[in-house]
Design goal:
The structure holds 3 protein chains of 3 kinds.
Chain A lengths: L1 H26 L13 H28 L2 H33 L7 H19 L6 H32 L17 H41 L1
Chain B lengths: L1 E12 L2 E12 L3 E6 L5 H8 L7 E6 L2 E2 L3 H4 L2 E4 L11 H11 L5 H12 L14 H13 L5 E5 L7 H16 L3 E5 L3 H7 L2 E6 L2 E7 L2 H5 L3 H11 L1
Parallel strand pairs in B: 3-8, 3-9, 6-7, 7-8
Antiparallel strand pairs in B: 1-2, 1-4, 4-5, 9-10
Helix pairs in contact in B: 3-4, 4-5, 5-6
Chain C lengths: L1 H21 L1 H20 L4 H24 L11 H7 L4 H31 L7 H25 L6 H29 L6 H26 L2
Helix pairs in contact in C: 1-5, 2-3, 2-5, 3-5, 3-6, 3-7, 5-6, 5-8, 6-7, 6-8, 7-8
The chains are: A mainly alpha, B alpha/beta, C mainly alpha.
Chain lengths: 226, 235, 225
């Protein structure tokens, strides 16, 4: 049953992306100022939105674990973080590429890129810490707290970077496009939905892996106790 | 009303159940010896009774109240595998600190009395890290008893104690029992346990498979309980 | 509540007493701060006036690196002899244990900072005395944030392998908003500018409030499993 769900979601997501890309590149004219490159926005921003969605799911899973001690929440959290990191990376890389092509710079500490980068760093710490704890309950508790701390930090990061940029008179967000043309909204929204679908499929795959791993761990522990 | 009771306690580490519905009861004034092989779950159960760990399922009641209640915790003394004293504080400072944490009145007098009881008055200002092993053990015992606990939980207390420390602990446990305290101790040293025990419980793979008074049979032949259950298991 | 605060004070005093007996951590931290200060002096070849532009930033880098050394080891003190077990089993609430350790860590951190500030001024010819009191205010506020988050991480990672390697990966990114605020305020103070630093101050205070409350609330989950 779950396998079917995974396949359907994955397939649907992939079809949407392929169809969308086809439409974007062959069916639409270039953007006024940036030409074809402006179409990066169909990957760059949806990736950020998908990323933050899955970080949010991870926080919900973390709170769920702390309240119920049920490991399915912990599995949900780690799976969501991993998927979110992938989307964050896509966002960062496309942002960097986009910036280089248009403005000639590989990186800038503007508000959006910086907050995405900080988020990536914080949850990278989350992923790095997990293997270092052997026992499952301790690992899950620690991860849950880290995820919550990281999430609490992000609004503060945004406040701080915004202030910092104002003080140091940093250039405005490099990738500010100032509103989307009406004909651009449908492919944009479709891209977001497609990422959500694929992300969910990936989370489900990862969830199953976590469940199996926990079973193996407990069987191994039981064997050793005899 | 029992002094301390575990009711169908389950404890999971990950998906592995270290305790599977363990039910245990120690009436007031009893000395319960908790026996079991390594890995049976004795330490896990004791830690749950001492409030160091929460059960995944089931509950622990102390004098009828929930075990997590603050007032209840002040009436429990715990002696685990580690000695539970600070190396960089003197014996006296350690006892004063733990006495204050356990709500003892007039902690300085209590600390001095405890030091005298375990025979460490001479080294009261010595740092715990300078003590010999036997002295550290006696300091640990002093720490566990400083607040005159009504319930004493001990995890394999006689293991690796030197003769003097064994004598001190024996004496303290007897005195505590005379004053109406309840003792739960897990042990491998079956002989010493059987001498003090009034109740015996056997923990096997997370379940209490036997619980009852200590019989003369057990006193005469401490290994009797293990063998009986070994035979039963093989049948 | 009052008993909890009394217990917290007991723990803070205990931590400080044991630390001053051995002085392991504080020596390491102060030495580290001095070495880093020295290296910074070599790293930058700026004119005296230009140096003021980076002064706040450098100062807080030193404070953060040296300070993390102290607070990240806070719960490690309780591991030998299983003292942590006795503390958890005692009537003392988990938040009191945490608060006591944060106060102790914060005190040690302030000591390191107050020693480092004059040395910083000396090595780089920075005049810090006229603005000392507001500077102290920033130091107090921001160091509390470092202490609270550091001690929380120390509790979380007490059983973790490779703790020393991992902690910077977690702690420093989390501190970024706090440090941005503190660095800016310190720079403005040292430069003697009349700029309004209210917004930065607000970030520091909000950081402190959010993480102090989060940590106090979550510490129960961390310590009792």
């Amino acid at each position: 049953m779950r396998e079917k769900a995974i396949y359907i979601l994955g397939l649907l997501g992939t079809l949407l992306i392929v169809g969308n890309l086809y439409h974007i590149f062959l069916g639409m004219p270039g953007e006024a100022m940036q030409g074809q490159i402006g179409k990066m926005i169909f990957v760059h921003v949806p990736a950020a939105i998908a990323g933050f969605t899955f970080y949010g799911v991870a926080v919900i899973g973390s709170i769920g674990f702390l309240l119920t001690k049920d490991f399915k929440y912990d599995s949900l959290a780690v799976s969501s973080v991993e998927v979110a990191q992938v989307f964050a990376l896509i966002n960062l890389v496309t942002g960097s590429m986009w910036g280089h092509i248009i403005w000639g710079i590989w990186w800038t500490w503007d508000l959006r890129l910086t907050s995405q980068f900080m988020c990536f760093m914080l949850y990278l710490g989350y992923l790095l810490m997990r293997p270092a704890v052997a026992e499952a309950t301790q690992r899950a508790t620690m991860s849950a707290i880290l995820a919550i701390f990281a999430a609490a930090d992000i609004p503060l990061v945004i406040m701080a970077i915004r202030l910092h940029n104002v003080r140091t008179q940093h250039p405005a967000p490099v990738l500010e496009t100032g509103g989307l043309a009406p004909s651009w909204w449908p492919p944009f929204l479709i891209a977001i939905v497609a990422f959500w679908l694929i992300g969910t499929a990936l989370v489900l795959v990862r969830l199953r892996q976590e469940t199996v791993r926990r079973e193996i761990d407990s069987i191994r522990r039981e064997l050793h106790a005899i | 009303m029992s002094a301390i009771a575990a009711d169908r306690v389950w404890k999971y580490f990950g998906d592995f159940p270290a305790l599977r519905g363990a039910t245990l009861e120690a009436p007031k004034g009893a000395c319960l010896a908790l026996l079991g092989r390594n890995g049976a779950g004795k330490t896990t159960l004791l830690r749950i009774l001492a409030n160091l760990s929460r059960p995944s399922k089931g509950e622990v009641r102390v004098f009828g109240e929930s075990a997590t209640d603050e007032k209840v915790r002040a009436r429990i003394g715990y002696l685990g595998h580690g000695i539970g004293v600070y190396d960089d504080l003197s014996a006296f400072e350690n006892l004063v600190l733990f006495g204050q944490l356990m709500n003892v009145r007039d902690t300085k007098a209590a600390a001095n009395a405890a030091l005298e009881r375990v025979g460490l008055t001479r080294v009261r200002d010595g740092f715990a890290r300078e003590f010999s092993r036997g002295m550290r053990q006696r300091l640990a015992i002093a720490r566990a008893f400083i607040h005159n606990p009504e319930i004493v939980l001990l995890d394999e207390p006689f293991t690796s104690l030197d003769d003097r420390a064994i004598a001190v602990l024996h004496g303290l446990l007897r005195d505590a029992l005379t004053q109406g305290a309840t003792i739960v101790m897990s042990t491998h040293q079956i002989r010493e346990a059987m001498e003090l025990a009034t109740q015996v419980a056997l923990l096997e793979r997370g379940k209490i498979v036997h619980s009852g008074p200590r019989t003369d049979e057990m006193l005469a032949d401490p290994g009797w309980l293990y063998r009986t259950y070994e035979q039963e298991r093989q049948q | 509540m009052k008993q909890g605060l009394a217990a917290a004070w007991l723990i803070a005093r205990k931590d400080l007493r044991t630390e001053f007996r051995t002085r392991d951590t504080i020596n390491a931290s102060v030495s580290f701060a001095l070495v880093v200060l020295m290296l910074f002096s070599f790293a930058f070849d700026l004119g005296r006036e230009e140096f003021y532009d980076i002064s706040g930033g450098l100062l807080w880098l030193v404070y953060t690196f040296a300070g993390a050394l102290i607070v990240n080891r806070s719960f490690v003190r309780e591991v030998p002899n299983d003292c942590i077990d006795i503390l958890i089993a005692s009537p003392m609430p988990a938040w009191a244990l945490f608060l006591g350790k944060v106060v102790a860590g914060f005190t040690l951190l302030m000591i390191v900072e107050l020693v480092s500030l004059p040395v910083f001024g000396l090595f780089n010819n920075i005049i810090w005395l006229p603005t000392f009191w507001p500077q102290l205010g920033v130091m107090l506020l921001a160091s509390w944030g470092i202490a609270v988050t550091g001690v929380a991480f120390s509790a979380i990672t007490v059983n973790v392998r490779l703790r020393e390697l991992m902690l910077p990966v977690l702690h420093y990114p989390l501190l970024v908003p706090l440090l941005i605020g503190a660095m800016q305020i310190s720079t403005v103070l040292l430069k003697g500018q009349a700029t309004d630093i209210f917004q930065e101050l607000r970030i520091v205070i909000v950081f402190d409030l959010i993480f102090t409350s989060l940590a106090l609330y979550l510490i129960e989950f961390i310590l009792v499993s």
